[in-house]
Amino acid sequence: MYSLVESREAVNNWLERYGVRFGIYKNGQFKEQLFPFDPIPRVIDHEEWTYLEKGLAQRVKALNLFLADVYGEKNILKNNIVPKSFVYASKGYLPQCEGIRPPRGVFAHIAGIDLVQARDGKWFVLEDNLRIPSGASYPLIARTISRKVSPETFSANHIEDNRNYPQLLKRIMDDMNVNGGLNVVFTPGRYNSAFFEHSYLAERTGAVLAFPGDLVVEDNKVYYQGIFHEKTLVGAIYRRVSDEYLDPMFFDPESLLGVPNLMQAYAAGNVAVLNSPGNGVADDKGLYYFVPRMVEYYLGEKAILQNAPTYLPYYEEDREYVLANAEKLVIKDVSEAGGYGVVFGRDLERERLEKLKELIRSEPRRWIAQEVINFKDLETMEDHGVVYRKADLRAFVLSCSDDTIVWKSGLTRFARQADSFVVNSSQGGGFKDTWVLREHQSLPKSL
Amino acid sequence: MKQFFYRYESNIDFSSPVFAHSWLLRCMPRQEPFQRVDRALLRVSVAREGGDELILPVSYGRDAFGNAVQTGYVSGAHRRFSIVSEGVVSQTPYRVCDTAHGMFLEHTALTLPDGDMERFIGETFDRQECAMEGELPDGPVLKKAVSLCWAVHGRMSYVPGVTTVNTTAAQAFALGRGVCQDYAHILIALLRFCGIPARYACGYLIGEGATHAWVEFFDQGVWRGLDPTNNRLLCHGCIKVAHGRDSADCPVNRGVFSGRAAQRNTLDIRVEEV
Fold it and tell me: Which domains does chain B have, with CATH numbers?
């Protein structure tokens, strides 16, 4: 362990050589930056992990059932568990997906669930990501490099091997593949913030990395056309292009990133698309409030994992509370992602806070408010020694037709500044590996 | 029951050859309770460089709104893209017994009303006048819908060329001018604002040389057709091709191709009672 911490620079140098970068757009400029790695891992012991694993699998099962219901029979709306207008006014709800049953009925194949741990040890889910969650490749490659740089660390501790992620992902793609054709990772291209991940996962799963223009729909089937324009049938697309750009025939007609007529081929069952278009309705910041109710409704079980205490200004009672307590709440714009549109009431000057309250009154559906969770700080190595930083955990849950698998690792992101709560990579955060300990293994001795 | 023959012909001429052309059409009639498709033929072709014609294979499917869609792809260079869709439908009076999906109550970017439009609704209901030809069934929702239709018809002037496919209801309303698509978007915006489910419908109308757009609104288990451009409740003689939340859900022809070319479109539509 000590030798791993000592090797911080070495690991980061290797990551740099492998091109582990995160691109960000700031003021219209594309900038690529290294994604700083901290060698002190987040460690989760076996017992705690068993609890998280159960809770995560349960949550993702319910979310998958919700998606099938919303785009199908709509029983949860008919029974008034979730208000109709919340679903139909959600930006993530895509009418173009109504009635489409994806191959084997799975909607969220790769889910990224963001959790935080409070000081008292309790875990809370902050956000579900069911569209194109990125991040698994970072702890994956960091572990691979760390094992080379400091092999003794991994022989001395009984850590679950996380290098099986590509096999898990391949298993999901193979299971969804409708015709034995190619598995494809479909990237918007090299200027996407997570391009490293797209190329790395394609390489590690043996899938073809396809760029816009490489895929074409002919006779309602999808083909990959290589540089010599010979065509190969495609059976499953792990797409990392957002819904709105996926098919210019059905979504944004200006999109140059999409595959024209992909939606028709998908609706006809001629190709699998991972994750399914339209999933945004279930990871909408507003629908989040209802996830524990979905668990009860679909599975008949109490939700194992808790949401952070959340208020919906849409409900009058909650609105009153939010307006009266705005200074102590985190207020989120439901239509924004990636750490944008998140404000802490206490950081706002009086005038801006009043303005925000006005917006909450006029457009209550657009906002949610949450209690600030005092999350547990994690030890982080800085040049001058160990400091404490806020961190979250993105757990990855993979679903195929007969199984829901929680990857025994995850992306731990931490804030670089001492007082910051925002850990998103797009906001300059760094990352750690996440160790899940095997049974009967106590925490590693002090660093 | 009345029978109608329809024929839709569209040609796109490109100033220079284009290739890798994907297309998606909604140019064949929907099966509806009031509209049976007796015969429907579609022919899609391209003219290649030398002038010889190539008939393209067509994939038939349905979109999420239940509209018939026809798709295809042609890789080779061509200068002209042609569609002929023709057939015969039998119709009973226009009504669709169904439920109303919640999405038809939500505004879209194209149908979001502004303050002026909201005031306009109030003024319309205050005046309590309305004139529409023919016998009208009764009911409070129907009355509201018909008087809004009449008001939109009175407020707008039919002027082609001043709006585009991307003009919103609010923009067209402020302009006071537009075409059937704008009339339909405005009426949809007003109806949804009043809590009446409304959707955009389009197809071929007897006596019209272009595709026509109108509105369907929902009342007591029935969708009815309301045509704000011509100020009337629809009965016979409009061949319904598609419906959706707004015009963006039901374009007749969408295409994506490679090549730098100007396009010239010619369109010919005929509807005749058989």
Answer: 2-92+251-273 (2.60.40.2250), 96-249 (3.10.620.30)
